[in-house]
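Raw record, unedited: MarR family transcriptional regulator
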Amino acid sequence: MWPVTVVANRRGSIEMLADLFAEVMFDVITTRTLADAGAYLTVSQLECLKYLQRHGSCSAAELADGLHMTPPAVTKLVDRLVRKGLVTRKERADDRRSVEIALTDSGRRAVERIRERRSRIFEMILSRMSPEDQQQLEHALRAFLAAGLNDTAVVEALCLRCGDESTPDCPLIEAYRDLTGTPLQCR
């Protein structure tokens, strides 16, 4: 049995490593990617563009639901993206009270440029690791997620709504199936 101080120190060390890992993922791989790609986008704006790329045009209400945001927040977000020429907003033919939001060609190119840049940075980091370390990282991340994804509300909130890009080995799909016995709808 480990002394309490050793266990507490280890927990503190793991927490510190997790914080640093999250910072590398967010700062190095996401924030710098946005700046380096010349996109001048916020993370929220990028998530909106990625959602529209996955799902095609949708209403503001559908977008708010898909991004887990309030309708007023989505309205402001879309306003900024319209001004940047990355999305369009027009009245729906079937309901003039509702608007349809869609990516422009510039918006599609921006998402692709950012995805390519992000993948290159991620690959560069992984290439500095041995294949064994890469496997251990994948195993440890899957184990951590499996242990942490123990509430259906959390799983549903974290779901990226990947749609056709969804893979059967997605940790969220696995966690939801383990919790409920039914598949998670990724649309």
